[in-house]
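Sat 14:20. Reprocessing the chain from the morning session after the first attempt stalled halfway. Input below, unchanged.
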Amino acid sequence: MDECHRAITNAEERFFSECDTSDVPVIAVFTKFDALWDDAYGQLKSAGLTRRECSIGAPERAKEIFANAKIWDRLCETKYPPKDSVCVAEMEKDSANCEPLLESTTSGLGEQSMQMLLISTQRTNMTLCIKHAVKSVLIVYRRKAWSSVGLSKDTSVEMQRNIAAWFPHMKVVSWQRW
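Finished this time. Tokens:
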């Protein structure tokens, strides 16, 4: 990136080099990612693409420009690197997509109880709830299934209850026994 995009300031670099963030899940949020779209558009236009092709391809090309700048690599080399990163664009719009930020934050929390707390506040984000419920619970039960002959009926009910725990705002009426 050139100077006008100022990816990481000295203060930010010092933060990750001097501040122990091991107890706090810090997520590096690269805002105004759409500023790279202009550069990407220009590169694609120079390569002979049509305006329509440039408009469609600019966001993906911007990701490549960002990756080639090795900004994330630089942060990961610090003494106290962030847990994750996310690039956001067009956040000033009413239709802004916060999904990547929520996903990154949830994953960065690490502890399941903290993940559940965040996800429980996302009642309208069922995709996020389902993804983390299934991911965290199925990993445990997959290990149990591999280490034994299979899963018992009691284990199946237990698994259902553990998945349901990710949805505290929903009431479970009955448990399915297979």
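The beta strands are 27-30, 84-87.
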